[in-house]
From TrEMBL:
Top-level taxon of origin: Eukaryota
Single Gene Ontology BP annotation: regulation of DNA damage checkpoint
GN (gene name): Wdr76
Protein name per Swiss-Prot or TrEMBL: WD repeat-containing protein 76
A single Gene Ontology CC term: nucleus
UniProt-listed PANTHER family: WD REPEAT-CONTAINING PROTEIN 76
UniProt record similarity statement: Belongs to the WD repeat DDB2/WDR76 family.
Length: 397
């Protein structure tokens, strides 16, 4: 390399008196307040937050309609997943019947979609999307008016993970780097469940009643959180030997087991034996050579685990780059051996694979879908798929 020039050899760059805040008289001018940049926004305080949207005006009827709809559709009994399993031929027919139309494409949040959740209602399509700025957008897809979608800001950082409570879908739990919140539509408030200085990455419910959860940390640890205890601290923090934990997912049948995905690690642990240090995995899935983005148990038996890794297995291009959310392959709750994942292929599409690696179906529409949908969610009982892209836009097939 060429030797760098010495400081005395360089030409001294002139700075104007205005930039130095010096008047012509030589008197130092007062410091000007820093202006908020495009990426900056007011910080969200700790503790409970009222469920008031960003664009709230004097006319609150549209917002009230959205929240009332969420509350109403949460009062119905949920259908168990095992009741909706179908024959494979019927499943392929159902995939072919799902289409995307222009009215089912909408920009719901301002920035890149980092997580999504779909309400289990069978009467109305109701979707939640979280972006990288901490916003959560709620969209009643069946509402044709402008009031069908509203944006809330309960977090300061990316909304990494979201789930409607399986026990009470009037609760929407959302996880950002520093906090786990519960949006309770019956009280119109975002409660704070857990707060930590260690950045959260993902969570999943340990029990059907959603009272406890396993939470992953970006630094590799996991924590157990009990929503019934006072305060916002976790019950236990455990070092599982990971450098990074990106996703955690609880077994659908044997709830004591959870699978964690990290740097190149995918391991199953028993939550009953977790301790602060020295934890051993029940099982380890070997073979990944690069960064693992996610790992999830199959929805009915939990006998399968699907992972997404930057080593492009399944002959699948998973290298999304820094501007797109990383792909996460998710199981279709209605089919034990089929999963959905985003794609870098053109025309832009969302792909459905069988656990053998066979490509079953590609969802695309060249008129309505022209971007990569990294984050996807599938309805638990109906033939509905939602894909989210890097500009905050949702596409409903």
């Amino acid at each position: 390399r060429a030797k760098p020039k010495k400081a005395e050899d360089e030409t001294v760059r002139r700075r104007s008196m205005r930039l130095q805040r010096v008047e012509l008289s030589g008197i130092l001018m007062p410091e000007m307040p820093a202006q908020l940049g495009a990426e900056e926004h007011p910080q969200v305080p700790a503790g409970p937050l009222p469920m008031v949207p960003e664009e709230q005006t004097e006319n609150t009827e549209l917002t009230e309609d959205l929240l009332t709809t969420w509350m109403r559709i949460s009062e119905v009994l949920l259908v168990t997943i095992t009741d909706v399993l179908m024959m494979f031929s019927r499943y392929q027919d159902s995939l072919n019947s799902m289409v995307l139309s222009e009215e089912n494409v909408k920009k719901v949040v301002k920035y890149r979609v980092c997580s999504m959740a779909i309400h289990p209602s069978e009467s109305i399509i109701f979707v939640a999307a979280g972006d990288r700025s901490g916003q959560i957008g709620l969209w009643n897809v069946d509402c044709e008016s402008e009031g069908g979608a509203h944006v809330f800001t309960p977090h300061n950082d990316p909304v990494n993970c979201m789930h409607f409570s399986p026990w009470n879908p009037a609760h929407l739990l959302s996880l950002s780097n520093d906090t786990l919140r519960c949006g309770d539509v019956t009280r119109a408030v975002f409660d704070e469940v857990c707060r930590s200085e260690e950045s959260f990455s993902s969570f999943d419910f340990l029990e059907d009643n959603a009272s406890t959860a396993i939470v992953g940390h970006w630094d590799g640890d996991v924590a157990v959180v009990d929503r019934r205890t006072p305060g916002t601290s976790s019950e236990l923090s455990a070092d599982i030997g990971f450098k990074r934990t990106r996703t955690v997912h609880v077994h659908p049948v044997h709830k004591q087991y959870f699978v964690a995905a990290g740097a190149v690690d995918v391991c199953v642990y028993d939550v009953r034996y977790l301790k602060s240090k020295g934890n051993e995995a029940v099982s380890s899935l070997k073979g990944h050579t690069k960064s693992v983005a996610s790992a999830y148990f199959s929805p009915v038996t939990g006998n399968r685990v699907v992972t997404v890794c930057a080593d492009d297995k399944l002959r699948h291009n998973n290298n999304t780059g820094r501007w797109l959310s990383r792909f996460r392959a998710i199981w279709d709750p209605k089919q034990e051996d089929c999963f959905v994942v985003g794609s870098m292929a053109r025309p832009r599409q969302i792909e459905v694979f069988q656990d053998t690696g066979k490509l079953l179906h590609s969802f695309y529409n060249t008129d309505c879908l022209g971007s990569v949908c990294s984050i996807n969610v599938v309805h638990p009982t109906k033939n509905i798929l939602v894909g989210g892209n890097s500009s905050g836009r949702l596409h409903v097939f």
